[in-house]
Amino acid sequence: MYSLSELFSNPAYTFLWLALGVGALASVAFGVMGTFVVTKRISYLAGAIAHCAFGGIGLGLYLRHAWGFAWAGPFSGALAVALGSALLIGWIGLRFQEREDTVIGALWAIGMAAGLVLLDLTPGYFSPTSYLFGDILLISAEDFRTVLLLDGLILGVVALWYRQLLAAAFDAEFALLRGIPVGFLHLLLLCLTALTVVLMVRIVGIILVVALLTLPAAVAAQYTKRFFPMMVLAVVLCLLFTSGGLLLSYHVNLSSGPVIILLAGTAYLCSLGIRRIRQ
Fold it and tell me: What is the pLDDT of residues 103-135, one digit of tens each?
């Protein structure tokens, strides 16, 4: 096995540079959006969006290989279905709060089932493993540019609506009294979460997506209660988890997505233990 210096100087292993670069870029969106998700306690909504996105992956592959639509693919399908499900879930939450859990649970299951059925119907063989558990080592230069574009879009929207999103996250009733469009901001936050979920699919997969979205922010929350420092710390932690998990998985010859999550989960449990000892 190559050492790290030999590994990064070998042109045959350019994919590792791409994987680390995509992980670094995506960590910014993960840390920023994860802080909002943890603060508003909507991780279950993010999980439902992620599982619906798997149905979009199956739909994109089916349209391309069964019907010959060249514009369709797993990424475009996941993006369209994730955004659509985010709007639907947000609308259900605003209109039918008493039945929200039941409907979201149904969408969660339907998304996964539809994705698997569509993969079965798609001509050829497509393993769901890379989509369910991620494979950051398969990142291409085109994926890098796509992540860069979506990352910029997410950060730009958050920067534009930061004060309003912050107010709605901490005290929605007070924000509504101040004339802030809380319902619109809730839908906007879910759509940004959907974009972040799509970014995560290639890194940790559908199954583990909620963990990487919430664990860095949850660890950061153990050390600061101020929102912006929590967001910055979550970004740094997510960067450490993705890059450290990627390099560790290479050395121990294991799947990168689960190793990244195990590293993040271990850090979270350790932070809880340290906090308990300090108290």
Answer: 788 889 999 999 999 999 999 878 788 888 887
How many of the other CB atoms lie within 10 Å of CB of 120?
A: 11
Please report whether residue 192 resides in a domain. Answer: yes
Both structure tokens of 113: 């089932």
Give counts: helices (H), strands (E), the chain.
12, 0
Confirm if 123 and 65 have CB atoms less than 8 A apart.
yes
Nearest to 111 by CA among 134, 142, 88: 88
| Residue whose tokens read 């004339």 | 179
* 99 inside domain: yes
Residue 100's H or E segment, with its range, is helix 100-121
| 2, 16, 187, 240 from 12: Cα distances, Å | 12, 9, 44, 24
Contact 261, 211 (CB under 8 A): yes
pTM of the model: 0.90
The residues near 102 (Cβ < 8 Å, ≥ 6 apart) are none
Residue 278 domain flag: no
For the purposes of burial, counting CB atoms within 10 Å of the CB of 13, is it exposed (0-12), middle (13-18) or buried (19 or more)?
Answer: middle
Question: From start to end of 26-114, where are the E strands?
Answer: none
Going from the C-alpha of 267 to that of each of 25, 95, 216, 270, 273, the distances in angstroms are: 21, 38, 9, 5, 10
CATH of the domain at 60: 1.10.3470.10
User: What whole-number distance in Å separates Cα of residue 214 and Cα of residue 209?
Assistant: 9
Residue 127, SS3? coil
Q: For residue 222, tell me if it sits in a domain.
A: no
Average pLDDT over the chain, rounded to an integer: 88
| CA separation for the pair 248, 79 (Å, rounded) | 30
Q: What is the dihedral of CA 239, 242, 248, 250, to 10 degrees?
A: -130
Structural domain span for residue 166? 14-207
